[in-house]
Amino acid sequence: xxxxxxxxxxxxxxxxxxxxxxxxxxxxxxxxxxxxxxxxxxxxxxxxxxxxxxxxxxxxxxxxxxxxxxxxxxxxxxxxxxxxxxxxxxxxxxxxxxxxxxxxxxxxxxxxxxxxxxxxxxxxxxxxxxxxxxxxxxxxxxxxxxxxxxxxxxxxxxxxxxxxxxxxxxxxxxxxxxxxxxxxxxxxxxxxxxxxxxxxxxxxxxxxxxxxxxxxxxxxxxxxxxxxxxxxxxxxxxxxxxxxxxxxxxxxxxxxxxxxxxxxxxxxxxxxxxxxxxxxxxxxxxxxxxxxxxxxxxxxxxxxxxxxxxxxxxxxxxxxxxxx
Length: 324
Ligand SMILES: NC(=O)C1=CN([C@@H]2O[C@H](COP(=O)(O)OP(=O)(O)OC[C@H]3O[C@@H](n4cnc5c(N)ncnc54)[C@H](OP(=O)(O)O)[C@@H]3O)[C@@H](O)[C@H]2O)C=CC1
Ligand SMILES: O=CC(=O)O
Known about the structure:
The structure is a single chain. The protein is of the alpha/beta class. It has two domains: 3-95 and 290-322, NAD(P)-binding Rossmann-like Domain (Rossmann fold, 3-Layer(aba) Sandwich), CATH 3.40.50.720; 99-281, 3-Layer(aba) Sandwich (Rossmann fold). Helix content is 37%, strand content 14%. The strands form two sheets. Strands 8-7-6-9-10-11-12 form a seven-stranded parallel β-sheet, with helices on both faces. The protein has a five-stranded parallel β-sheet with strand order 2-1-3-4-5. The two termini are 31 Å apart. The model has no long low-confidence stretch (mean pLDDT 97). The structure holds NADPH dihydro-nicotinamide-adenine-dinucleotide phosphate and the ligand O=CC(=O)O. The site of NADPH dihydro-nicotinamide-adenine-dinucleotide phosphate has 29 residues, from helix 7. InterPro entries: D-isomer_2-hydroxyacid_DH, D-isomer_2_OHA_DH_cat_dom, D-isomer_DH_CS, D-isomer_DH_NAD-bd, NAD(P)-bd_dom_sf. Its EC number is 1.1.1.79, 1.1.1.81. Keywords: NAD, Oxidoreductase, Pyruvate.
């Protein structure tokens, strides 16, 4: 039986399924305490499956027998796609199954920031609700406003669908390529990023983290946004310059931010973002519902079984590089 290294706990039923196909070595995450044992196990493995751990080339150099990797995520930034392709190793991922749940989470961020839900709920819990709410605590409307999406992919589209159909929002987007579906179905307008930043009430980033998108939104971009703009990041922390965002929030350059992802995760409690009323911070929970996380694991297990049997026709993230 082929040896497979599992580096994240998964539901029993999916573990059993993996074990019927492979000899599975399990790690409950990778950390400084188990790093050496992990690297030793890696030296024997032909398949790798898990999430939320660095799998860059310096780690994978320790896996000379590796034939396929399967990440339990749609984002692939913890791997080096080109390095894997050079070694002819496919990286499988889980696109699609988490679109709707992640869009729900992003919409929760939009609503919490616009209506100051966390800040005002904390006021009630802490006994600071002493009179009826006045202008100082008013939020801002969501319906009828303009939502600018940077990265109109699968999840961007699911967010735009909620905004257009549910909240009567005007949708504009910037993206590497134009999206006729979003334009036809949701009346979305394609524009360059600068125009989008200047004219959106809500700016939502949903690109993958790649060398091209790292640091995409920084000081200059926050300065272009409306003073009343609400910024949402559901992609990856490194797509934005977090210190520039903190500055923009502290100095009233923009109104508020809703964040599911951060430069360093878990976000240290000492981060200024944890103390700001105009920042809503979530612990990277875009896809974190029982149903969707199970669907992702099922997809990732299927992906690894298929890939180790030579079938990478579905869900291979570096197929374009393998074909070169
Ligand atoms: N917060 C969370 O829990 C979650 C976060 N994510 C993050 O969201 C990302 C997007 O997921 P998903 O929608 O499935 O991915 P998609 O690939 O479907 O969408 C990404 C979009 O970004 C566009 N894009 C890529 N590079 C650039 C660039 N340099 N400039 C402008 N646009 C660019 C792509 O353009 P084109 O169509 O032309 O390729 C594509 O439309 C994931 O990679 C992950 O990092 C995902 C799930 C949950
Ligand atoms: O961040 C989550 C993912 O699936 O990517």
